[in-house]
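Re: weekly structure request thread

Next one in the queue (231 aa):
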Amino acid sequence: MSSDLVTFEQILPLLGVRVFAYDWLRRTFLTEPTKDLLQTMSQEGFVEGFPFVDDSELIHEGVGKVSKYLKEKDILSEEVYNQLHWDYTRMFIGPYELSAPPWESAYLNKERLLFQEETLNVRRAYLKYLFLPKDYGHEADDHLGLELDFMYQLCELAISKVNKQDKAGLKEVLVDQKSFLEEHLLMLVPDFSKNMAKNAQTQFYEGMAMVLAGFIELDLKALEELLDILG
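Done, posted below.
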């Protein structure tokens, strides 16, 4: 067996874990909660199986809050469903002043304006991979949910590179993910997640803020490990 095949087999499980994590996170932060998502998360052991839960106090505490909320509430009842929708809407959409604006430019731009240089920098990263965000031109490209979706798409692309045994292509995708994480998500998530955890009215979103912050921090280490294995 060639050394490249050994390398691919060695890193494939971690790539799969990252696909799972980013899929869950993008679905949580891009739109209001759906009943399908809540039903999936309510399955026995699903939340508790979030990646790196034993390696991060933030993820561990966040998972505990989300799990407790889902077990104690009838999440498919209209009352609880509406409660979650309102919690998402008032923090991320409006109509009132947002307690946790989900755009990178809200934290990096002095005037906190959208569609500024920060947004264009994110768009340039998307364009390399022909990633066209949902509601392009109407929703700013630097929305957290879109950035998480972009990372998810690149995670899927990384697995396809493994399946094609394209080591150079795989390394390029991982290098670009690391750059995007350092230049964008890690510039947004720490302050965003603190605002969200502080202002959430449900344990579900308070916990997901912690899970997000803990995962983004550890994913940088995961990417460094993957690139080190590739050499």
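The chain is about 70% helix and 0% strand. The domain at 3-230 is CATH 1.10.3480.10 (TorD-like).
Next request, please.
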